[in-house]
UniProtKB/TrEMBL annotation:
Gene: dxr
Keyword Manganese: yes
Pathway: Isoprenoid biosynthesis; isopentenyl diphosphate biosynthesis via DXP pathway; isopentenyl diphosphate from 1-deoxy-D-xylulose 5-phosphate: step 1/6
Entry keyword Manganese: yes
GO biological process: isopentenyl diphosphate biosynthetic process, methylerythritol 4-phosphate pathway involved in terpenoid biosynthetic process
Origin superkingdom: Bacteria
Name the UniProt record assigns to this protein: 1-deoxy-D-xylulose 5-phosphate reductoisomerase
Residues noted as binding NADPH in the record, renumbered to the chain: 11-14, 120, 122, 202
Length: 380
């Protein structure tokens, strides 16, 4: 098992749960980072004593320097600070940043020949071709943290070398608004959208779960990670979030991975892979688990889901457009500036109306992302 790791985005939901796992497994934490939450970062620094802490926001980095002047932790800021984190001497980088801002540090970590425990799905959606090419070129591992992708990854360990995969069955909880019509979604509030039935997560992904954008992003994420045609990925709504996804082989045999809905299981597996060690997460209690239910997904009501499928079919920079439009629309909804249904309308319109080409390099992806963000601001 690895002895050291560094975290991109240590103050978030995945970041703090990664630290729970590192604490339990006695893994040394070499570097921590956050966008601006220096209060929590200071607590983490005092507990884990990393050599480096990066605060993206330069002013907040200066404040942190003063607060932790009595420690030996070096403080850096900005993208250059994240680059330096990627080149430290830890064995694994956990990418728990939210948003495609994680693309540049991901590429940097790969160039530094680091294996990555990967939660930051927006990065793979926006820059999938670049990331997967770099993974091949530098021979590193991209270990999925997203629960569905961890499940698929685990099930695929049983596949023959040529996989013989017929399809991926990507499970979805359906979120807080499962079963509602568009009419019933017109007036939903941010508070209602933030109340996820099964998972406790960061605000952005919780809204993405309510719009089902999250499942759209995950189809694209799975297509890249497992080199699968998006048409061979079927979304199955499974309300209880006990099955975390399944794979179906050529002989119609289906394998599933199950566990309580707690991200510390997939986070730990990405850290200990291919080994398994005892977890902080309890076993499933089969006596109280009375039922598991399955439904199909409604991508007419949840338009983000259909928009992501269209974006992946169009290929090139269209997934980056879908993601960029959603990052802005999701934020505008949380800020009370647009309605819930407008998120799906804006993401769909961006995918259908913008004209983008192929992703040859990072600048292309950043430009498509900017175009999509501007499109949303112009259309509200
Ligand atoms: P979060 O909002 O709780 O945390 C995000 C973290 O990223 C914070 O530590 C924040 O400071 C950091 N960050 C943001 N911008 C940064 C920047 N420019 N530089 C450095 N740090 C930066 O988000 P989360 O829920 O933990 O999600 C993180 C990622 O994991 C997302 O891509 C999400 O889709 C994915 N994911 C999350 C869960 C979950 O249960 N929370 C499950 C599956 C996948
Ligand atoms: Mg997921």
């Amino acid at each position: 098992m690895i002895k050291s790791l560094s975290i991109l985005g240590s103050t978030g939901s995945i970041g703090t749960q990664t630290l729970d796992v590192a604490r339990k497994l006695n893994i040394k934490v070499n570097a921590l980072s956050a966008y601006s939450s220096i209060e929590l970062l200071e607590e983490q620094i005092r507990e884990f004593r990393p050599a480096l802490a990066v605060v993206f926001d330069a002013d907040r980095a200066e404040e942190l320097k003063i607060k932790i002047a009595d420690t030996s932790t070096k403080v850096l800021s900005g993208m250059s600070g994240l680059h330096e984190l990627c080149h430290d001497d830890s064995e694994l980088i956990v990418n728990a940043i939210v948003g495609m801002v994680g693309l540049e540090p991901t590429l940097e970590a790969i160039k530094a020949k680091k294996d990555i425990a990967f939660a930051n799905k927006e990065t793979l959606v926006a820059g999938g071709a670049l990331v997967m090419d770099a993974v091949k070129e530098y021979g590193v591992k991209l270990l999925p943290v997203d629960s569905e992708h961890s499940a698929i990854f685990q099930c695929l360990q049983a596949a023959p070398p040529d996989k013989k995969l017929k399809k991926i069955l990507l499970t979805a909880s359906g979120g807080p608004f499962f079963g509602r019509t568009a009419d019933e979604l017109r007036d939903v509030t941010v508070e209602q959208a933030l109340a996820h039935p099964n998972w406790s997560m960061g605000a952005k992904i919780t809204i993405d779960s309510a719009t089902m954008m999250n499942k759209g992003l995950e189809i694209i994420e799975a297509a890249w990670l497992f080199d699968t045609d998006p048409d061979d990925i079927e979304v199955v709504v499974h309300r209880e979030s006990i099955i975390h996804s399944m794979v179906e082989f050529t002989d119609n045999s289906v394998l599933a991975q199950l566990g309580l809905p707690d991200m510390r299981i997939p986070i730990q597996y990405a850290i200990t892979y291919p080994d398994r060690v005892p977890s902080l997460v309890p076993e499933i209690d089969w006596k109280t688990l009375s039922q598991m239910t399955f439904y199909s997904a409604d991508d007419e009501t949840f338009r983000c889901l259909a928009a992501c499928k269209r974006a992946m079919k169009k290929g090139g920079l269209y997934p980056a457009v879908a993601n960029g439009a959603n990052e802005v629309a999701n934020r505008l909804f949380r800020d009370g500036k647009i309605s819930f249904l407008q998120i799906g309308e804006l993401v769909s319109a961006a995918v259908d109306e913008l004209n983008v080409g192929k992703a040859s390099d990072l600048d292309d992806v950043l430009a498509a992302d900017r175009l999509a963000r501007e499109f949303v601001y112009q259309n509200i």
